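Two proteins were folded this term; both appear here.
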Amino acid sequence: TTKVDFTQNPTVTSNRDLYAKAVTPTPSDSFLEDLNADGKVTLMGRDDWDEFVANASAVQPGQRIELGEDINLGGKSYQAIQFEGDFNGNNHKIYNGTFTPNGSDCGMFAKIDSTQKIVNLTLEDITASSLLTTNVGILAGQVYGGEGIRDKCLVQNVHVKNCTVTGRNAGGLV
C-alpha cells in the first residue's frame, strides 16, 4: 500500500486504496467561552438550550443567541429567562414547554429591555401561567420601550401558535 500525503496536493494517476483519519470537531469547553469569543452562540438542540438557560444572565447587550434548529423543550418547565442580549430564532421554533415566573414577570423571557432585539421566532405549544405574578406573556412578561426615540426594543417576525397564557395582566405575546 502506498501512502499519499494530501497536504502536498498530489495527483493520483491510478487506482489506489486511500485511507483518511476522521477528525471530529470538538465542541468548545463552554457556552460562555463561545459567547465571549464570537459574541454569539448558535443553539443546536435541547442540551444547548439548557446550557443557555443556565448561563443566560451572563449574556450582555450586543451579544446574540441564535437557533440553528427547532428546539423541543420536551414538556419541561423553565423559569422565565433573564438576559440582556439579542435573540434570533432564524425562523425556527421553540415548542412543547412551560415557563414559570421570575420575580413579577412570566414568559419565555421575564423582561425585554429597550436595547434588545428578538426576531424570527415561533413559539408553539408553550404555556406561561401564574396567578400570583403581575405580568404574563408567552414571549415576555414585560417589555421596556425606553424613553428616547432610539431607545426602542425590536420584536419582529415573532409568532405564537397554540399557546396558553394565564395571569393577572396577561397578553398573548407580551
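Next, the second protein.
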Amino acid sequence: FATESGEVALAWSQESNGQNDIQVLTGQNDNLVNVSNSQANSTDPELVVDSTGDAHLVWVEDDADILYSRCSRVDCTAPAPLSNSAALECLPDPSPQNAEPTIAIDPADRVMVVWLSGQQSLVYSTWSASANPSQTPTGCVPGGAEEEPAGQQPRLATDAAGDFSLVYGAGTDD
C-alpha cells in the first residue's frame, strides 16, 4: 500500500519459531515491526492507511480472535481485541471462532472491520481512525446469516461519499 506522500505500508504473516507473526513495514525509512509479537499463531493481515499516513491493521490470532493495531511511521499500538461478541444481541450463539477480517477506511477517516464469526454471522465494528476501537463489535451485518456457512470471504470498500460497501460469498457449494 502506498500513501499519497509516497510512503509504504505493507503487512504479512511470517513464520518464526513454529508460529506465524504479523510483520508491518511503514514509513519512508522502511520501519519493520513485529506487531503481533505473541506466542499465538497470527494470520490473515489486512491494512488500510488514513489521511494522516497511519496504517490500521487487523488480523486473526489462533483462529479465534480478531486483533487491531494502528501503526505510525515509527511504531504500532499494542494489539487490541475486536471480537468480544458476547454482548451482541444479534448473535444467537457467539462463536469462539472468528476469521477472514477485512478493513476499509472512508474519506472522513472512519474505519470499518467486518469478519466471519463462527459459521452463522458476519460481525462488524466501526470507529474514528483517531480513536481506539471498542472491544465489543458494533453489530451484525443484516442478511449475513441467511446462508450457512454465512458470508464467506467478506470484502469492504468505500466510495468518495463515504459509503461502505460489503460483498461476500453466499456460502453455497454450487
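The mean pLDDT is 84. Residues 18 and 52 are 36 Å apart (CA to CA). These notes refer to the second protein only.
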